[in-house]
Amino acid sequence: MKKNLILFGILVASINLNAAVINNSIEENINQTANVSDVKFSVNVTYSGNPLSGASVKVMQEGKSIGSAITNVKGTVTINIANYNGKLVSITTSLAGYQSNTIEGTTLSNGKSINISLTKGTASATAIPESKVESIYSKSEDKVK
């Protein structure tokens, strides 16, 4: 009888532990999903103010491609990204005969319009958002003082 009670106690504890693990897993998935949404934004690609048709636009996050498209005759592309998590992305634009241009560390939002200008040549350029430039500048000033 005593063995049966001990076994029963172990069984009940095991069931409660499994239920708690499942509950935590469900809550974690809900929290991750709550911070995710679909986003639709546009990119305008130009050279000297003129639209560039056929430019490749790639959106990367943490080393993975999350979206890409080719600009139309107006130099514009609209990109839809499903389940965007709000984290920083980089946007690279390229076209044969022009230097590729990458914008690092930007976030996306519905209706956002991003303007990217290419220059002729074969090298590449990387743009860092102004907020990061200010941060780097202030840190370097502190070291000089």
The CATH superfamily of the largest domain turns out to be Immunoglobulins
Remind me, CATH topology of the largest domain? Answer: Immunoglobulin-like
Enumerate how many helices there are, as a single number. 2
| Strand-residue proportion | 35-45%
Q: What is the CATH class designation of the largest domain?
A: Mainly Beta
The percent of residues in helical segments reads 25-40%
The second-level CATH architecture of the largest domain is: Sandwich
Widest β-sheet, arrangement of strands: 4-3-6-7-9
Major β-sheet, in short? 5 strands, mixed
Q: What's the Cα radius of gyration?
A: 25 Å
Using DSSP, what is the number of strands?
9
Instruction: Give the distance, in angstroms, between the N- and C-terminal Cα atoms.
Output: 79 Å
Number of domains: 2
Order of helices and strands: HEEEEEEEEEH
What spatial form do the alpha-carbon principal axes imply? elongated
Average residue pLDDT:
79
What class, by secondary structure content?
Answer: alpha+beta
Describe the structure.
This protein is of the alpha+beta class and 145 residues long. The protein folds into two domains: 1-34; 37-140, Immunoglobulins (Immunoglobulin-like, Sandwich). It has helices at residues 2-34, 130-144; strands spanning 37-47, 50-51, 56-61, 64-70, 76-84, 89-94, 100-106, 113-117, 124-127. The chain has a five-stranded mixed β-sheet, with no helix packed on it. Strands 1, 2, 5 and 8 form a four-stranded mixed β-sheet that branches. The longest helix is centred in the first third of the chain and has 33 residues, at 2-34. The model has no long low-confidence stretch (mean pLDDT 79).
